[in-house]
Amino acid sequence: MIKAAVLGYGTVGSGVVEVIQENNRLIADRLGCPIEVKYVLDLREFPGDKNEKLIVHDVQVIMDDPEISVVCETMGGSGAAYEFTKAALSKGKSVCTSNKELVEKYGPELLKLARENNCNYLFEASVGGGIPIIRPMNTSFAPEQIQSIKGILNGTTNYILTAMAGEGADYAGTLKKAQELGYAERNPEADVEGHDAGRKIAILASLMTGKTVRYEDIYIEGITALEAVDFAFADKLGRTVKLIAEAENNDGDISAIVSPRLLENDHPLAGVNGVFNAVFVTGNMVGDVMFYGKGAGKLATASAVVSDVIEAARATLDKTALPCVWSEEKVSLVAHDEKKERFFARVRDMYADKFSGKLSGAEDMGSIDGWHGYVTKSMSEKEFMDVLKTSGVDARYIRLD
Ligand code: HSE
């Protein structure tokens, strides 16, 4: 019998308990022994809840219990969650988490601590919710030189962009509707400004390189500047606007960026709609591989945490360490404005001549609703910024894929 504890009885934590209890028999069959949740740590009481008796308020009860070999950290944040994770790992208890902030900030340190104490730190649920992507990065892609990872890693923004594309609606109205439907937080900043996707691609880029790609070093643009007319131009171009978080390894030059992109309509990521997420990985041997599923939600995210619990339990029973190469060595990223891109740019009709006079080799997309659109040839963002500056015209732009 493997005994586990869950830190935090919120949405994901209660989902973890539900998945373990609901699928107990099949988990036992697959693992060769059952898993039982012995404690749930939470400050609150849960009168009438079927797991009321499992609730403890003192984390020490869990840390001091030698029967507990796996701890699920579903608290979030990087304060108490960090301290509790270190305490558990120091006692040789494996930790499985959905906490992307903690993983991004302290991943290598916690992995090292786990190794030193013959246990494991696992974080499948920290990126892409229920989508298996961390384990494939650590195992299935072991023979690969990964060349690029492109992801739709945020459900809130994908919901908004899908609605804007389908309904021709504006950003503010679509965000409001998303909030009313519960698809966007009341404070949506971390999602719509791209920071949530930024943390997730930082984790994936770190696993891609085996070193540390810091979220702070990634150039991040959100979706708040997009307007209905961008979607009308996207239609004309046979493209779709998506918030893409991507990391590339170009012969050792590593780049990472989060920004809206115009994808060709037949790109596999262009068909990922609503709150769904997907990750498109290109390896030098395997070619393109895509993972698709629910990037958030109670049971999807909990399922990913429990998949880690089973892995951790198996490793405990077999006394093995699970593979994860992620060192503290920091990766220097290629400056985002040095990378060559093609840009879709739009300027007010009255400035079209002034702007296009400075933009050689661009494709003229004509005019929609008082805006004139262009698609540039491949150029660095620095060069593109020079064009904007010398033309003296205020242009809106979106990168092409
Ligand atoms: N807020 C995130 C999203 C879910 O909208 O995808 C958790 O990472």
Secondary-structure blueprint of this entry?
Blueprint: E1 2-7, H1 11-22, H2 24-31, E2 35-41, E3 55-56, H3 59-63, E4 68-73, H4 80-90, E5 94-97, H5 100-116, E6 121-122, H6 134-138, E7 146-152, H7 155-167, H8 171-180, H9 189-192, H10 195-209, E8 219-220, H11 228-237, E9 239-250, E10 253-264, E11 276-283, E12 287-294, H12 298-318, E13 340-341, E14 343-348, H13 352-356, E15 363-368, E16 371-375, E17 379-380, H14 381-391, E18 396-400
Parallel strand pairs: 1-2, 1-4, 2-3, 4-5, 5-6, 8-10, 10-18
Antiparallel strand pairs: 7-9, 7-11, 9-10, 11-12, 13-17, 14-16, 14-18, 15-16
Helix pairs in contact: 1-12, 4-5, 5-10, 7-8
The structure holds L-homoserine.
Describe the model.
With 401 residues, the protein is of the alpha/beta class. Helix 5 packs parallel to helix 10 (195-209) and helix 7 packs across helix 8. A hairpin with a 2-residue loop joins strand 9 and strand 10 (253-264). It is elongated. The protein is 37% helix and 25% strand. It folds into 3 domains: 2-129 and 297-318, 3-Layer(aba) Sandwich (Rossmann fold); 136-294, Dihydrodipicolinate Reductase, domain 2 (2-Layer Sandwich); 337-400, Alpha-Beta Plaits (2-Layer Sandwich), CATH 3.30.70. The relative contact order is 0.14. The mean pLDDT is 96. Strands 7, 8, 9, 10, 11, 12, 14, 15, 16 and 18 form a 10-stranded mixed sheet that branches. It binds L-homoserine.
